[in-house]
Write a structure and sequence with these properties.
The protein is about 40% helix and about 20% strand. By secondary structure, the chain is an alpha/beta fold. The chain has two domains: about 210 residues, Isopropylmalate Dehydrogenase (3-Layer(aba) Sandwich), CATH 3.40.718.10; about 130 residues, 3-Layer(aba) Sandwich (Isopropylmalate Dehydrogenase). Strands 2-1-3-12-11-4-5-10-8-9 form a ten-stranded mixed sheet, with helices on both faces. It has a two-stranded antiparallel ribbon with strand order 6-7.
């Protein structure tokens, strides 16, 4: 039997509550298949760990994580710990150290999910965002000069390497080719006259290798508008670190809410472990109440299954989420229900249990 060793960083706020439900679903899938299993190792890192040690993770944390097949992250962030510390000293250091340069975020409107847009059919919102994940605007390059003085100056530099830009765009083209879908590039070349002009140039160069893929290119502000007014024009989308971060929250808003927003941080070569997480944050205002929505965490578990080659099971997990939404009986308060976090996880596991004929 194949055993996948998974590092679990439950993190902060509702993180431990929702991650338990994702693990419940992964165990259920493995039980049904019988040919593979998961072994979970828990790490107590996050903001509470920071208040105790002054660090978001152990000093040798990256070295400890290297041996795992994947990382499952709950949430990061809590009042009292500055956001730039909780983000840079845990989540971003993992992404960069393990060269998880592909961020995958599905924006798919499932049956039963609420969409605030009028006159939009479910099939019109079915996007796959591929976001550059290790450089660009989140490179951390810059300086803070003359701090506190009258002539204080802050420099924040975006870093776009040819290697980094080309590999994410090529990954997106490969994905679009495999799925038989169009690819849209989103940039801002009219204002960012170096980085985004370069991005557009590389996109054009790489597109020559994929004549079968239909392409489009939009400025980020126009793309934000079009995602709301004409979402069906977007299928596979490739964009930079910052733009991808912002636009996928727009996507979450039109595809059922942030409680359904899942994300995968992929090292495609498999040299390092990839990381899977919900993107809704730690929601400290409801932490400990058992009402956090675990569906995004469960959806990210489906992405983990996809990553390990069990795409049929990954699809069935998403199908189970969709069935839960259509039933409209076991939902957390953010989705106008009264169920607890664990009750939602239990119901998803039950639905999957009725799909025993599935083989990945």
């Amino acid at each position: 039997m194949k055993t996948y060793n998974i590092a679990v960083i439950a993190g902060d706020g509702i993180g431990p509550e929702v991650i338990d439900e994702g693990i419940k679903v992964l165990k259920k899938v493995a039980e049904l298949d019988g040919g593979f299993a998961f072994d979970f190792t828990y790490f107590p890192w996050g903001c509470e760990y920071y208040t105790q040690t002054g660090r978001m993770m152990a000093e040798d944390g990256i070295e400890q994580l290297k041996k795992f097949d994947a990382i499952y992250l709950g949430a990061v962030g809590f009042p009292g710990v500055p956001d730039h510390i909780s983000l840079w000293d845990l989540l971003l250091i993992i992404r960069k150290s393990f060269d998880q340069y592909v961020n995958i975020r599905p924006v798919t409107l499932l049956d039963g999910a609420h969409c605030p847009l009028q006159n939009v059919e479910r099939k019109d919102i079915d996007m796959l965002f591929i976001r550059e994940n290790t450089e660009g605007e989140y490179s951390g390059a810059g300086d803070w000069l003359f701090k506190g003085q009258e002539h204080e100056v802050v420099l924040q530099n975006g870093v776009f390497s040819r290697k980094g830009t080309e590999r994410i765009i090529r990954y997106a083209f490969e994905t679009a080719k495999k799925q038989g879908r169009s690819l849209t590039s989103i940039s801002k070349a009219n204002a960012l006259n170096y980085s985004m002009v370069f991005w557009d140039q590389v996109f054009e160069e790489v597109s020559a290798d994929y004549p079968e893929v239909k392409t489009a290119s939009y400025l980020v502000d126009a793309a934000a508008m079009l995602m709301i007014t004409d979402p069906k024009r977007f299928e596979v989308v490739v964009t930079s670190n910052l733009f991808g971060d912002i636009l996928t929250d727009v996507g979450a808003a039109i595809a059922g809410g942030i409680g359904l927003a899942a994300g995968a941080n992929i090292n495609p070569e498999g040299t390092f472990p990839s990381m899977f997480e919900p993107v809704h944050g730690s929601a400290p205002d409801i932490a400990g109440r058992g009402i956090g929505n675990p569906l995004a965490t469960i959806w990210s578990a489906s992405q983990m299954l996809d990553h390990f080659g069990y795409e049929a099971y990954g699809k069935k997990v998403v199908d189970a989420i969709e069935q839960l939404l259509v039933e409209d009986e076991v939902l957390t308060p953010d989705m106008k229900g009264s169920a607890s976090t664990s009750e939602v996880g239990d119901r998803i596991a039950d639905i999957i249990g009725n799909l025993q004929s599935v083989k990945a």
